[in-house]
Specification:
- By secondary structure, the protein is mainly α.
- It has 2 domains: 1-95 and 250-390, no CATH class; 108-248, no CATH class.
- It is 70% helix and 3% strand.
- Strands 1-2 form a two-stranded antiparallel ribbon. The chain has a two-stranded antiparallel sheet with strand order 3-4.
- Strand 1 (284-285) and strand 2 (290-291) form a beta hairpin.
- It is globular and about 55 Å long.
């Protein structure tokens, strides 16, 4: 088995492990044993592979270094977490086959796998668990234990499978998939974050349908939305969820973000607050007086803990890699765009053990860089074998 084949399959299984393995520790161990250790071995044997191939990788390295240096004063685990992310991005970008992850087969597995997982959880939750239909699904049986995380995964995976629906003119599959994804996110998972991701995807699909099919594409898209409306209204009424998503409001997100921004301003705009032991008065939840621990926004988290410089570096890095994806015509860029957008509504740190941020941020980031590295590798005609030595590429 070649290095590229091994890492491609291990990455596919790693993504699958988020849905099938019941604990975060099992997902972490899978990553350590099957990706991190072999990847670190090859990277150390071929240290020249660590040299950044473009400015995006330079910013990524500097950003990880800054976050690690700052965090290490408060908890040493940050060094290990940063190493995990670095090894993941470099192993994937150097050793996987990006064409496999852009294929129709993988795209379908990614999207329909997320829907099948949701369906299986719903059957267990409603039928076996005797929960009334319309109760929000909270599976808690895999690493993606939150309904919000599952909805983010489904909405982002639309960006990978959608282009294949259009390219191969599988419009009926696309219509059915879109309707099922909408019903899963709104009726079963009841996640507004997932709806935001689907909204971003709809905007992209509107452009693609009009460009690819003209007025026929627009008619088909409108027909799909009307079909969705006709199907969803009675089902929502049956489940008693017609106003549930609206009544929950913003779940105090705006108040939480405002509190963190006020605390960041008090600590210092340039360096942020670090990880203080005493909570800021702005982060004490009223009226019970409990502390707010989670920012629910990766950008606010960067700003509060590390200051404005890492936030600017992260923003430049994302814009840079999105520009690379645009030039490549790589739809993992759309996945990354939607992922960052949804992570701005419900997530926390970008440097951590394998979690939803790895799927929504670091996975597409690494695969876009893998495509870039592939073009460089074809230029220098080099690859890596298991002995860790460069050999001439036979392709």
């Amino acid at each position: 088995m070649t290095v590229r084949t091994y890492f491609s399959w291990m990455l596919a299984l790693f993504v699958t492990s988020f849905l099938v393995l019941p604990t975060s520790k099992m997902v972490n161990n899978f990553y350590y044993i099957f990706i991190a250790i072999p990847g670190l071995y090859l990277l150390l044997r071929n240290y020249k592979l660590l040299k950044p191939i473009n400015s995006t990788e330079w910013i990524f390295l500097i950003l990880c270094s800054v976050i690690t240096f700052y965090s290490a004063f408060y908890h040493t685990r940050a060094i290990i977490h940063a190493l995990y992310v670095l090894v993941f991005v470099y192993s994937i970008s150097r050793f996987v086959d990006p064409n496999f992850f852009s294929s129709k087969t993988f795209a379908r597995m990614l999207f329909w796998g997320g829907l099948l997982y949701t369906a299986a959880c719903a059957i267990s939750f409603y039928l076996i668990g005797n929960e009334p239909f319309g109760t929000r699904l909270n599976p808690g049986i895999s690493r993606l234990y939150s309904p919000i995380q599952i909805s983010m995964f489904i909405s982002c995976s639309l960006f990978i499978v959608g282009p294949h629906w259009i390219k191969n003119r599988n419009l009926w599959e696309g219509l059915i998939g879109f309707v099922l994804a909408f019903l899963a996110i709104t009726l079963i998972l009841q996640s507004r974050t997932g709806l935001v991701g689907m909204g971003v995807w709809n905007a992209f699909m509107l452009i693609c349908m009009v460009r690819g099919f003209g007025y026929k594409g627009l008619i088909f898209l409108v027909a799909g939305l009307l079909t969705l409306l006709v199907i969803s209204i009675p089902m929502f009424d049956l489940a008693g969820q017609s106003t549930e998503l609206i009544e929950r409001g913003d779940s105090h997100r705006l108040a939480i973000w405002n509190g963190y921004l006020l605390a960041w301003r008090d600590c210092g705009i340039l360096l942020g607050c670090g990880f203080p032991e005493t909570p800021s008065p702005h982060l004490v939840w009223q009226p019970d007086g409990s502390e707010v621990f989670i920012t629910h926004n990766i950008l606010v988290n960067l700003l509060y803990h590390f200051g404005i410089v890492p936030l600017m570096m992260f923003s430049i890095m994302i814009l840079s890699v999105l520009n690379i994806a645009w030039q490549q015509k790589n739809w993992w860029g759309g996945f990354l765009f939607a992922g960052v957008f949804t992570l701005m509504l419900d997530s926390n740190s970008i440097i951590n053990n394998p979690d939803e941020v790895w799927l929504m941020l670091w996975l597409p980031f690494a695969l876009i860089l893998a495509e870039e590295w592939q073009s460089k590798r074809e230029t220098i005609k080099k690859t890596i074998n298991w002995s860790g030595t460069p050999i001439v590429d036979a392709n």
